[in-house]
Amino acid sequence: MDDFTTRTYGTSGLDNRPLFGETSARDRIINLAVGGFTSLIVLVTVISSFVFPSLPPKPLNVFFAVCILLVCGSTIVLIFWYRQGDLEPKFRNLIYYMLGSLMLLCLCANLYFHDVT
């Protein structure tokens, strides 16, 4: 069987470059900022679903939080596949769209939990 570490893939030497090239520091900062902010909002929303308006939590609030966590799961899978190089770079825009939609869903959930009219 061939040793996969010694293949050159038609280049002059060993080719260990990432599939989509290097990411810039700006891209990493944007990814961390958007991901961190989204994670914070989701965490606040899940905690709010159990605490507000009073204990014990309303079943509808918990159901809303479970739906948000399911959307988070699919987004995390897309991010994982993107970072492994299994997805094309154009999927990054889809990931940003899903994170934005998730933030809006969490905003709606928090407004509902706190009975804002």
Summed up:
This protein is mostly helical and 117 residues long.
Shape: elongated
What is the makeup of the main sheet?
none
Which regions contain 5 or more consecutive residues with pLDDT less than 50? none
Order of helices and strands: HHH
Overall helicity? 55-70%
* Average of pLDDT: 81
Compute the CA-based radius of gyration. 20 Å
Count of extended strands = 0
Strand content: under 5%
Q: What structural class do you assign from the helix and strand content?
A: mainly alpha
Cα-to-Cα separation, first versus last residue: 67 Å
Number of helices: 3
What does this structure look like?
By secondary structure, the chain is mainly alpha-helical. Helix content is 65%, strand content 0%. It is built from three helices and no strands. The N and C termini lie far apart (67 Å).
Architecture blueprint of SSEs:
Blueprint: H1 25-51, H2 59-84, H3 91-113
Helix pairs in contact: 1-2, 1-3, 2-3
Notable traits:
single chain; 117 residues; mainly alpha; 3 helices; elongated
